Amino acid sequence: MNVLVLGAGQLARMMALAGAPLNLKVSAYDVRSGNLVHPVTLEVLGHGLENGIADADVITAEFEHIAPDILNICQASGKFYPGEEAILTGGDRRKEKTLLDKASVNNARYHTILNREDFDTAMNTIGIPMIIKSALDGYDGKGQWRLKSIDDAESVWLDIAAFLQASHQGDRQCVIAEEFVPFDREVSLIGARNANGEIEVYPLTENIHTDGILSVSVAACENKALQAQAEAMFKAVADALNYVGVLAIEFFDVNGNLMVNEIAPRVHNSGHWTQQGAEVCQFENHLRAVCNLPLGSANRIRPTAMINIIGEVTVPEDVIRLAHVHWYDKAPRPGRKIGHINVCADSPTELADKLEQIATLLADDEFPAVKQAASSLI
Ligand code: AMP
User: Fold this and answer.
1) pLDDT at residue 137 above 90?
2) How many A from CA of 203 to the centre of ligand 1?
3) What is the whole-number distance in angstroms between the Cα of residue 28 and the centre of ligand 1?
């Protein structure tokens, strides 16, 4: 079967690697150049979306910030999963919030802001502190403002007004003000749903972010009550979208109660641990779902942690003795994800030990959360 992925980054690459044993041939459409490329070698295989669609049995996506006309063409082909509506929803916080409300899923109180009057209403109804996020083009904490004091209201508003005016998205762009959630930690749930509505979900993963970017994800301990809450919300959201493929949901854990932060209609960075830590990884399960093959077990087979490799950093070879290193074959740049490290163990304590050992091999400022992840396990 031929699968075309919109986007030619590391997620398409890892889908191609996971699909090979099932004879699933994955190619990628680079939305910037219009080239059709091999997602691992980046060899150019052709050009133009129409050609890619003609050769594909199935189309999917590795990111949600895709121009509506591209999504529209893919949808019209009848081969696109999870489909136009799911991708548009994941890429637009306004649509996302509407979906969460429709699915009756707990999420932070919010107010949509198009102008100064809305901004004032948001301050009065949501209250300060509040977090303001762009509806479109926001990822890894980009396109966000934090209003911590009424004294900053004028300058924050001027920033937002300039942002809205400069946006090329026209009427589709706006910002969403959210209440500040005093969460204890951030967790995420990755799961797959197929066209029959069958679902396989992985255990919850605890995520540590640094400056809005994921540093470390840990899948080591079970919390049955939290898992049940997360799975119920996953089902509500996935069913509301009639979703086919892997879907990720990020949550805030507030005193044992989960609140959805955001959804990602695709395989997700916080699910990379599944490559070594689960029976069937998220990349294979996404392909199985969109290709209408039986879903694989999402059981965790051993405690596993994932450490992101971000920016211009080096990883000593000794790390390979202790862990699985996945490079993306990308040129290093500040803030750019260029690989990750999966660390596995037989118990949470052993995982903490291994993370401690790995932390001694890595620079603290380049891998800021590894020690924190180790201590959270003890
Ligand atoms: P996001 O791009 O929405 O995932 O936001 C990036 C990070 O900002 C999240 O991982 C949280 O650490 C933090 N954050 C986002 N929304 C809120 C909120 N409503 N309250 C508190 N922290 C938040």
Assistant:
1) no
2) 21
3) 30
Q: Are the C-beta atoms of 37 and 13 separated by less than 8 Å?
A: no
pLDDT tens digits along 336-352: 999 999 999 999 999 99
Residue 171 has pLDDT above 90, yes or no: no
Which CATH architecture is the domain 185-376 placed in?
2-Layer Sandwich (3.30)
Q: How far apart are CA 174 and CA 244, in angstroms?
A: 28
Fold of 2-80: Rossmann fold (3.40.50)
- What is the chain's mean pLDDT, rounded? 96
Distance between Cα 108 and ligand 1 center (Å): 10
Ligand 1 atom at shortest distance from the alpha carbon of 207:
10
Q: How does pLDDT run across 89-109, given as a tens digit for each residue? A: 999 999 999 999 999 999 999
State the Cα–Cα distance between residues 301 and 292, nearest whole angstrom. Answer: 25
